[in-house]
Structure formats: structure tokens, C-alpha cells
């Protein structure tokens, strides 16, 4: 292929793509959100539904999105434009690209704040805060952090700057190098924490909670939550995997790479649960603690355990690694677009988009200090709702429809080169994925 086909560079190997895409998929969604959602929705039965969603919807969509990216070889917006023209379809399809870029931007604005919390905890826990800290002290620390917008703003700034530093260095020296170092590190830390969890005495109970299905606890609502979570966790419907696909060399099998990435993402979510729940149960704490599970419940347990400070430190480092390798994927579509259309160099494109995103994040920073305000959504909850419940599902449906209905069959068949499995992919992408995602969406906005 000519150099010109890769405007922004390309991955140096299949492994580089797999690590970067896994870095995008594996994030706060796996370590912060999945365990508390499983906790809130009854454990085992939720996990089974989640696995089904990954296989029937997540993987076909990931294949679809990566394929679109590789075929278009540009930012999601220009990719959609080029491919729509190639298929003689409406130019309006490029709005799907816009939707993705905007969603990534909005998600990163709050993602950076939560990731900032993990950095605050690295410092706190590393400084010995957990040594013999009792439950009240730990709880008070989390409340204090949430009530201190200035401290959160500082960490939000540091995290965003770190993200931009990586992104500004480009595909090769930035994204690829960061994920090559951090992803193995993340896995090693997670394995260490899993082994540690085995020694806590709550291991059996933790495993039973995660893997013994009690379908009585599963509501229609939880099925939809599972589907939404699969979507968010795999990082679909918003251009990140599309832009990563656009840096993918031609000879790599998209289907195989997607299956590996989805499997890694799911394995890490389960391993995070396997690390967290035994520790929670060993200390007779509640698993369904909502978003506070890892910042409040878990540190209480760490505070009472031998070596708890060390393992607590490893845990928050893990959260940080997971978050930053996702953050770079969230902003990459915008950076690619700005450098294509405004002619900005990569550094300028990164810092400009980062600055706007940072500003938006301040809205989230101030969302937590007001305490509970009844049923009305705060800024953070609005952004979360708008992205996870509205933009991602719409983006996902558009991607599935575009890949399987608009792009010509010869094109997708050649691009995917997956033999007999192609028919399966096509059926799932044409009917199952858009149908199921439409259900989630209609439910989320209150129509169903
Ligand atoms: N998949 C990430 C997580 O589970 O935390 C979040 C995310 C990253 C969503 C990248 C979307 C994306 F494009």
C-alpha cells in the first residue's frame, strides 16, 4: 500500500492493534462499572446475559466498525463520507461519524474526572492512608474528595495532560508504545490481585456470587443494563475502534482480531470481579454498593487486611492504567479529524481538542459537590445518560446498518475474508445487533 493511504500512520503489527484496541476496550467500564453493575443486578445471571450480549451483538459490531475504519482509512467523519460515496449512498452518513467523535469527546470529559480520582487514591494509599484506617475514615475520605472540586480539578487536569502527551506523539510513538507497556502491566497487576483475593477467605463466596446464576434476581431492566454495559465496555458505536481500524494493515484478519479483543475485555471484567468480590465478602461488606464500590467499599476492606496498603496501591494503579489506555482512544477520532480537516499538526490537534474536553470536564467536577439532589440529574449524570444511553446506541445501530446494508457485499466480503463465517456475521450485523440495540435505546429513553 502507498504511504498516502495511512494519513496518520499505521500499527506495526497485528499485536500492536490488539493491544491498542484492548487498551481502548479495557477501562473504567471493566474495573469500576462492571463489578458494581453485577453487584446491583444480582451477580451470576447478569454475568450470563452480559456474555450473550458480547457474543451476539458486541463481536459482530466490533467487526463491522473495524472494517469500516480500515476501508475508509481516515477519521470516522471522513471515512463515513468516503465510504458513503463509494457505495453511492447519502452523504448524510457522515453525521454518524460526527456522532462518534462527539460521543468520545463527551465521555472523555467525565472519564478523566473519575480517572483523576484513581490518581488521587494512588497518592493517598501510597502515602500509607489505609494502614489501619477504619471504615469511617475511609468513607469520610471519599466524601471529602467528592466535595472538593478544586482537588478533583487538579487531578482531572493532570490526567488529561498525561493523555494528551501520549496522543500528541502519534500512532506509533504514542498510542502503540503506551499500550505495549501498559497492557501487560495491567494484566500482571490483575493476576496478582486475583491471587491475593484467593487468600482472603471470601473467595468461594465471591465466585459463587459472580457465577451462580439466580434468574429470579434478573429483571428486564438488568438485561438492558447488561446490553448497554457490553456496548460501553467494548467501546463500540463511537468511532474509537473505527479510527483504530483505520491504522490496521491490510493482511490482518479483522474477525480474528475482534474476537481476541472482545475476549480480553470480557476476561478482564470477570477477573476484576474475581479480585473485588472475595475481598468485599471477606469483610462482610455489601457487593451492591453502586459507583462507590471501588472507592469506598474496597478501600475499607484493604484497610483491614495484611498487606492491604500495598495491594490497594496496585489496585489503583491498575485502574489508572486501564483508564488512560481508554482515554487515548476516546480522543483519537477528534484528533484525527482536526488534523485532516483543519490541517493542524498532531500536537496542535491534540492540545486543542484536549483543552475543550478539559473544560467540559469541569462540569463533572462540580457535579459531585452538591450532594444528592433528589431525582434530577446533575451534569455528570446528564453527560453519562446522553452518551451511554443515547449516542452510543444510535451510533451502534448506524454502524451495523452501514456495514451490512449500505456497504456492498463484495466489498465487505473481501475486506473481512472470513469464509463461511461471513454469513453469520452478516445476519448478526443486519438483524440481531440493530434490533437488540434499538430495544436498549427505546428503553433508555423511556419509550419501552
Ligand atoms: N471501553 C471503555 C471502558 O470500558 O471503560 C470506555 C470506552 C473507551 C468507551 C473507548 C468508548 C470508547 F471508544
UniProtKB/TrEMBL annotation:
GO terms (molecular function) for this protein are: symporter activity
Swiss-Prot/TrEMBL keywords: Membrane, Symport, Transmembrane, Transmembrane helix, Transport
Q: Which residues cross the membrane?
A: 12-32, 44-64, 98-123, 153-171, 183-203, 223-247, 259-281, 310-331, 351-370, 390-407, 428-446
Regarding the membrane, this protein is recorded as: Multi-pass membrane protein
Q: Which CDD domains match?
A: SLC6sbd_Tyt1-Like
| Main location per the UniProt record | membrane
PROSITE patterns hit by this protein? NA_NEUROTRAN_SYMP_1, NA_NEUROTRAN_SYMP_3
Q: Looking at the record's lineage, which domain of life comes first?
A: Bacteria
Provide the protein's localization.
Membrane
Its Gene Ontology cellular component terms are: membrane
Output the PANTHER family linked to this UniProt entry: TRANSPORTER
Stated family: Belongs to the sodium:neurotransmitter symporter (SNF) (TC 2.A.22) family.
Please identify the protein, giving its name as recorded: Transporter
| UniProt source species | Methylomagnum ishizawai
| Lineage start | Bacteria, Pseudomonadati, Pseudomonadota, Gammaproteobacteria, Methylococcales
